[in-house]
Amino acid sequence: MSSSTPRQPARDLRFFLTVPHACSYLPGREATTLFLDPQESPGQGVYDSLALLGFRRSGRHLYRPHCEGCSACISVRIPVADFAPSRTQRKIQQRNADLEWHDRPAVFDPEHYALYARYIRTRHADGDMYPPSHEQYRTFLTLDHPYARLLEFRLNGQLLGVAAIDTLGHGLSAIYTFFDPDAEYARRSLGTHAVLYQIELARRLGLAHVYLGYWIRESSKMNYKQAFQPLEFLDGRHWRRAIPRRQR
User: Fold this and answer.
1) Where are any strands of DSSP class E within 33-167?
2) What is the value of pTM for the model shown?
3) What residues pair up with 210 in beta bridges, in sequence order?
4) Cβ(146)–Cβ(183) under 8 Å?
5) In tens digits, what is the pLDDT along the chain, a chain of 248 residues?
């Protein structure tokens, strides 16, 4: 089976559109989201198929943007076999060589939540995930399914960060990463290091891609994704190398 082929084709599924709501990324714009019927369990085969079409997971929901007159959100992924870290990324790997990584199921952990809440309050107090809550965390990052995992990284036993990922048949999907926001760890670039680790993990698992979600040219928060080259973007139903120069 090709690494880019889902394990089984998606069967007849029902999808719903949300009512227009404030865009989380571009101020002053409205967004509409297409999502899989919540009664449909996001099993491995369906998920594999929909991920190739640009769908992402949040909790139990599979979704993708479906905004009339706007195509700013572009699905991007890293082709693992062709990726080579830049000089800066190699330095980040060296600075974090002392970290220990542990693979955990995507279940609620009070230690994880405490770090998540501190990260959101410090880094994203102006975002739609503020203020954090136990319920918000559970519905966003926990899921009782084997493909959903939490990769925690520690320094001498101290939890520094957690990367939520999904293991698909054709790659790893980077769901969300949160880490210690203290200034003393800034030089480690923990967010970048988490992506680099996932690339290496995908390579060890024989998976072809790491899916980074959506890239938006006008959003400065998305700039970090361009540092991982080469990058592929979804153009309709086809994945192409390099991001487009201008939005459609």
Assistant:
1) 33-36, 56-58, 61-65, 74-79, 100-105, 148-155, 158-167
2) 0.91
3) 78, 172
4) no
5) 334 444 444 458 999 999 999 998 888 899 999 999 988 877 788 999 999 999 999 999 999 999 988 999 999 999 999 999 999 999 999 999 999 999 999 999 999 999 999 999 999 988 889 999 999 999 999 999 999 999 999 999 999 999 999 999 999 999 999 999 999 999 999 999 999 999 999 999 999 999 999 999 888 888 899 999 999 999 988 999 976 554 43
